[in-house]
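Fill in residues.
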């Protein structure tokens, strides 16, 4: 597989399988975090679960109702919060690593 980077308004996801330690990348406009293959696999799986849950909950909620859903593994915790078609994502990585804020400073460890 070749190196891959996808991005949209306020997000980006990358994959570079030839890298030794950190093959994955997730980020937003002003920060980025590298992930190991195991972390990236968990991120991908949990994100799909949370997206599916938000889709399923849409039929149960009134238009003005917000919801939050969490999922976690031993490697990371994720939460989506908002409306079923418009929500934010939070992630906490259970590791000893820093997150780099692009164009600014290095943020404190996220774990």
């Amino acid at each position: 597989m070749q190196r891959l980077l996808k991005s949209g308004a306020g997000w980006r996801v990358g994959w570079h399988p030839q890298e030794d330690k950190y093959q994955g990348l997730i980020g937003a406009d002003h920060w980025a975090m590298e992930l190991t293959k195991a972390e990236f696999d968990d991120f991908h799986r949990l994100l799909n679960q949370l997206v599916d849950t938000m889709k399923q909950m849409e039929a149960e909620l009134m238009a003005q109702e917000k919801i939050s859903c969490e999922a976690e593994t031993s490697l990371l915790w994720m939460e989506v919060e908002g409306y079923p078609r418009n929500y934010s994502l939070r992630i906490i990585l259970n590791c000893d690593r820093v997150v780099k804020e692009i164009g600014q400073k290095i943020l404190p460890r996220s774990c």
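The first strand starts at residue 4 and ends at 8.
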